[in-house]
Structures are given as structure tokens and as C-alpha cells.
Amino acid sequence: MNSLEKSEQLEPRKPVFQDLNFQIICAVTLIAVMGVSSITPAFPQLAKALGIDPQNLGLLITVFTFPTVILGPILGVLADRLGRKKVIVPSLFLFGIAGTACAFVRNVDSVLVRNFDLLLWLRLLQGIGAASLLSLSITLIGDLYTEARRTQAMGYNASISSIGTASYPTIGGALATLGWYYPFMLPIVAIPVALLVLFVLDNPEPKGDRNLKQYLRNAGKVLQNRRLFGLFIASAGNFILLYGAYITYLPQLINDVFKAPPATIGILLSSVSVAITITSAQIGKLSRHYQPSTLIRASFILYAVALLIVPFMPSIWFLLIPTTIFGVGLGIGFPSIQTLLADLAPREYLATILSVNGTFFGLGQTLGPLLMGIAFGFGGISSVFYAGVGFAIFIFFVFRYCTCL
Predict the structure, then answer these.
(1) Which CATH architecture has domain 225-403?
(2) Predicted TM-score (pTM) above 0.85
(3) List of long-range contacts for 15-18, beta carbons under 8 Å, 24+ apart
């Protein structure tokens, strides 16, 4: 029995959110979700300052998210074999240094394209630093907590993630009023967080004495578990619906149908984060009455209901109904997926499995706008949400099949 397990026995009533280890994990989570939403408010000014065609600004997001898809599983294997800190600490330093360096790219001697290329390379490096952070923050929760406390920690961590996702656009927008490069200075906070992980975080580390070939063979066998595959598909489904129907095309519907200004669109988009935050904070209580698999299935029913009613809303503020329903679905679904993954994964393969899951939600982020764009091309804006309904129902049945053994 390690010291952490002993301390949990000695202090079983201490709330998870008061645990210093958990607070450091939440700090890592806030860094992990910083890289996109904090800088997008500066994009119009950035395009003007560097002479960039606005249609190319999306590359700043693509090059940042791409490393997660490719490197996630590799970094997970390293974290299982070498230790969590040996991956997280260098990742945080790289995130902080490369991200902050973006703020110092300037229009010098009219070398506009070269400056944008430099910015893209720095964003790629920052994305490499970010690739493991979200998955390994969840891995640390799996390492440190068990049973009800693990579920509670997953819920609180999802709430913190949602608060960051909702807050960063506002923070980035405020900083962008001073100059396009100020939001790019936010990643510097990753450096003190790295020092906290290195010197303060108290977590059990894997021994790292296994043969690599044998480890990969055994990890491959673990990943063949049908229940794990169902959870990976559910993770990808979450992000296909979130990034496809919700983030990409709900603003388009609001603009086309209700002619709303950007500020109103921002409020409606933020409402889902509020719903996620409130709901995921209650996941510990819900888990006492419902199994995680039940909550995951319920989340896809809620997605289907929310997307189905979007085209029928008679006025703009009625859209708060489907956005809240959608947020409740994410609030119960996302942390339940993480909890069930941590429960199913052997500890020695935990980082690898959660990193593979990270690859799946990275795929969801990438494929969501593409798939819903195809639906838009076939039938216009309403067809996006009807396609989302069909997709949510499809994932519901796939997940049910994979988990009903």
C-alpha cells in the first residue's frame, strides 16, 4: 500500500477539491484547454497586423491540435514506462515557452509570410507540448483516487475544464484590445505549473522496468477490450457533435435566422459551458444512483433531443433550452467516460489507454466540422442538426452494443 492510499484511509472525509494534488491536476487541465479559445478573439487583428488572408487563420488551430492525434498514444506509453512527471513537466515547459514566443512574432521588414510561417511552427511546438496534458491530467486522477472519490474528482475536473473553456475567450478578448499578441502571452503560466508538478505533486509513478516489446504486446491485448472500444467511440462522438453541430454551425444558424450580433452568439455558446460546469459538479451524487454506462447512454439521448429541437425554436432566447440540454448531456457523459476508462484500465496501462482516448476525441474535433459540413451541403443549416440527431442515436446503439457483454 503506497503513502497516498494510506492517507486516503486516514482522511477519508477530506473533500477532493481541498486536496493539493487535485488542485495541481486542475491547474494542468486549465493549461490543457487554453491553447485555442484564448487566442481566437485576436484573429482579426492578427490577420491585419501580419497581412494574412483570414481563411488561413484556421491553420493556427489545425497545427496546434494535430500533434494530439499523432503523438497522444506515444506519450501515453512513455508516461506508463518512464513516469507521469517525466512527460508532463517537459510538456508544460514546451507549451509555455513556445506559446509565449508566439507573442514576439512581429511584422519586420515586411517579411509577412515568413513571420506567419514562424508563428505556425511555434504553434506546432506548443501543440506538441499540449498533446499529452489533458489525457495525463485524467490519468493522474485515475492514479490518485478510487471508487466514489475518483468519480467525484472526474466531475470536478470536468467542471474546471468547462470554466476554463468558457472564460478564456473573454480573457483573450480583453487582452486582444491591448494588441493581438497579448493573448499569446497567457501560456507563460504553464511554467510555474510545471514547477508545481515537479516539486509538489505527490503521485505514484510506474516502475518502468518492463520490456518494451512485451509491454506493447500486452497493451495491444488490453486495447482489444470491446468495452474500451465503445468508450473510445463515445469520446469521438462527443466531440463530433460538439465541434460539428454546436461550435461550428449553431453560430451560423443564429446569424442566418435571428440576425444576432456576435455578443449574443457568445452568450448562447457560453450557456453550454455553464450547464456542463453545474452538471459535472454533481456527477458524484448521480453516480450513487446510476452506473457510468447508464449516464453515457443518457447523454446521447440528451444530445439527440437538444439537436432535434434547435430548428424549431421560435425566438433566439429559446435556444437556451437546447444549449442547456446539450450541456447537461456533456456534463454527465464526458466525466463518466473518463471514470469508466480509469476503472477498466489496468494501472500499468492507464496513461496509454487514456492517451488513445485522447486521440479519438482529437479525431472528433477534426471530423466534426467536416461531417456536419457535408450535411450542410446536402440540405442547408437545419440538416446539420437532423444529421446530428441521427449520429447521436447511432453512437447510442454502438456504445450499448459494445458495453452489453
Answers:
(1) Up-down Bundle (1.20)
(2) no
(3) 16/145, 16/149, 16/152, 16/153, 16/156, 17/156
